[in-house]
């Protein structure tokens, strides 16, 4: 039996020798992995920047955790709203929503094309006019000589004119897209656009774009305090831009007349109300400043030079808002009152200034008792009463002429139905 026991002992010893290296290797691997993990954790702990703590810090204004957001804004490739108390990292693409005042930001991509302005007639920030000019024009035999009177030419893009073109295009894009780099840049742009709007070329460019015209009408009726400190209120600035674009610029007026029905039916982003409600009821409001009212009256004066727009303005009692200006007695309203008188004279009463007589006023003048009562002071028959008040208050040539011509028009239109029967 001894040989068998010896053989059995040798087999057990051999198996033990084979198993020992594998166990040692496993233990070593486990120890190495643990050491590596510990080292990595230690290294991460030693080299983690303090900013990591700031970036993970949340701002919570309510108990609802879903409404919390990081203190440091985390950008993506899409625009996201930026909260007022968030910190913005440097180098982002930031923009401001003109209508809501909401700031948005995303990762800045150099030379990225903004899809909001894709397709705009802008090349290197200069507005272009699409024209096809053949190299050789064949003039038929006996054709009359070409007359370029009334042709609107693009300004030469050199020096100051090029700077103006760039500034115009930037503000044009802000109005069209509703996005601006900042409130200050938007307000500065509106100021520059008001200056350029008096130029026939730029006035036409403004009115050729329906989105820009709509934005200006919405701003004109917004009556908000969103303008940056020291800037002209945006409602006043928008009215002044429209007035400048339409002044002595029949082509610009024709562009707005083309889109007039659609424009009035459209709504504004801020409150959703139709533009028609604002235009006919409170474009001119004594709740505004006299400066805003003067600008708005000038804009209306330019618009109602178009016969169709003028007809609708009268049918929708637009004259009531103008008459409300004559009801004011404080001296600071004198300039706005003169603007109203000029509009009425030039549009309805003074044929030498292009007025088409007989359109307005219609019917007889109301008696003083009716016009002195607040609830009926803005009746159409009360223009004579308030014109007489202007003569007594100011005694100026324009007030006397307004009173005289209103009386003459009443007599000439005496065969028309009384204003209360219309």
Automatic annotation (TrEMBL):
One of its GO terms (biological process) is protein transport. Pfam families: SIL1. One of its GO terms (molecular function) is adenyl-nucleotide exchange factor activity. Residues 24-45 have a biased composition (Low complexity). Residues 24-61 are annotated as: Disordered. Transmembrane segments: none annotated. Residues 1-24 form the signal peptide. Interacts with KAR2. This is Nucleotide exchange factor SIL1. It comes from Trichoderma parareesei (Filamentous fungus).
